Amino acid sequence: MDAVFKALADASRRELLDRLRAESGLTLGQLCERLAKAGSPMTRQAVSKHLAILEEANLVAAVKRGREKLHYLNPVPIHEIAERWIGKFERSRLQALSDLKKDLEAHDE
Amino acid sequence: MSKPSFVYVTYIRTTPEELWAALTDPRTIRRYWFGMSAESDFKAGSPWRLKLDDGRVADAGEILEADPPRRLVIRWRNEFRPELKAEGYSRCTMQIEMADYYPDFGGKAAKLTIRHEIEGEGGKFIEAVSGGWPKVLSNLKSLLETGDVAFKE
């Protein structure tokens, strides 16, 4: 989960996620084009470096198709964070607090 | 191979065999899929159906590939909402690999990748299933790691 927060703590990386949310399955080159079009150009090297950090945090999933590598926004870790800290409060505060405690303690090993 | 409409990935601290069992055992599926039950023997060529609590069929299709505990491909169409059914069959691929867990936890985990793709225009169907998957995957992860699910309803 540290990797997720670290990855999200950067405006350029959030911009990349926004572009992938708008359009799924982009190659590195297409991402660079979309960023330029959206008024926030980035060098190919910078995009490549940020993508690696996002992939490491599992916020971006990449699939190979032929010689191309397509990038997708993977919302699952963000959903897990919401479920851990927000979803439970919506349903039942007490249950949420006890689950959160259990969860945090279990991961504290 | 057509371009997947979405790709979802989750890492679960379990073995590929247990993850495969959770994806193919109707009683386990019921526990994390909001009361939906699957009907299939999960062998290549077999029919597959996902039924609502009240017995109505929500989705149906067939198992295209089954390679336990690594790869499951389902031909999948919504049967319940006419506007989604009209978009035709999609293809859902579930891939299981061993991988390193998130670096801050260390250790090994089973990596589950879900890809869903549809021929032609499948905007509404893809929107419907893409919203559901994160919740189902969250529940599945929580069930396998802690023995309970987060969302019951």
UniProtKB/TrEMBL annotation, chain B:
Domain of life of the organism encoding this protein: Bacteria
Q: Name one Pfam family in it.
A: AHSA1
Q: Which InterPro entries match?
A: ASHA1/2-like_C (IPR013538), START-like_dom_sf (IPR023393)
Q: Where is the Activator of Hsp90 ATPase homologue 1/2-like C-terminal domain?
A: 14-145
Family the UniProt entry places it in: Belongs to the AHA1 family.
Annotated protein name in UniProt: ATPase
UniProt source species: Pseudolabrys taiwanensis
